[in-house]
What does this fold into?
Amino acid sequence: MNQQLRNNWTIQEIESIYNSPLLELIYKAATLHRTFNDTAEVQVCTLLSIKTGGCSEDCAYCPQAARYTTGIDVQALMKKEEVLEYAQKAKDAGSTRFCMGAAWREVRDNRDFDRVLDMVKGVNKMGMEVCCTLGMLTEDQAKKLADAGLYAYNHNLDTSKEHYSEIISTRTYNDRLETLDNVRKAGVTVCCGGIIGLGETHEDRIKMLFTLATMPEHPESVPINALVPIKGTPLENNAKVDIWDMVRMIATARMLMPKTMVRLSAGRTDMSIAEQALCFMAGANSIFAGDKLLTTPNPSFDEDNSMFQLLGLKPRTAFKEEKQYLREAVEA
Ligand code: SAM
Ligand code: DTB
Ligand code: SF4
It folds into this structure.
């Protein structure tokens, strides 16, 4: 690859990309996507909530925060065997990445964590990329997850530093950045993105993208979620995210981080196939599949399969980067 990835973007440059005429932006992002990636390939990840609800944090969007009455069934940490059964089903349905989510503020060094480490080992043995999203991590915990075979860790910045305290008061932006640092130090790939529709300004979105695109290494995956408004949370009445905002956000992320997997994440049940196709055109190359995200609905495997057929997309194989790296090493 002789095209350079840039980590020295300025806010002004990002502003000018984000604010460029929409069709021009989509065209440029699609062109860049084509030079860095196989545009027919879309990574298919499946999510499973391994510990649901009862969370002590106050994230204003989240159905799992204990302090909001959202009608969620609180569930203790699942058994390993049950989780592996779900992972097998996801694999059989064509997923190559399995992401386990827990409604924890942070990981604690206890038997629950040991159980999660066993789950990671089990899913890794099945030949899938394993991802977790468990809240804040210390460097030591990140290393333990890496040793168990963790491939990626999801930890979102959600919004800009400036807007963060409007959304969450029980932790800081720096707490988030520290965990991301610990994940990097452990050699685990980083999955980090955000949500649009939280009441943020365009400037906040640009600032969040700036933080992601100026990290010493771009996150390997950047999920862009549209807020799923949840009854009982402070954001229950927020307006539906405009599809054009989603497309603009995805295209800008693609322009800034051309090699990253940009994930069209929460919010797909409200989008038509034509709208999703625009997102793929603008550079999205990853989705969550399976009829549930963590607690909210998502299109079924069957619906997505027929969308892939229609649009001529194919699922990306697992561990593709490693295979490429090994091939290059052999050829060198
Ligand atoms: N507790 C861990 C944490 O906060 O990092 C992991 C699970 S948490 C549910 C994972 C991510 O889901 C959040 O960072 C947020 O970006 C996303 N999320 C949660 N509720 C959402 C909603 N209603 N709409 C869109 N995205 C949401
Ligand atoms: C991410 O960025 N989106 C996913 C995953 N990472 C963990 C979660 C979306 C959750 C949507 C609300 C729910 O289903 O509870
Ligand atoms: Fe939800 Fe995670 Fe916030 Fe807990 S820490 S309320 S699970 S987003």
Notes: The first strand starts at residue 41 and ends at 51. Residues 61-62, 64, 101, 103-104, 133, 135, 155-156, 158, 195, 225, 227-228, 230, 266, 294 surround S-adenosylmethionine (ligand 1) (CB under 6 Å). The mean pLDDT is 94.
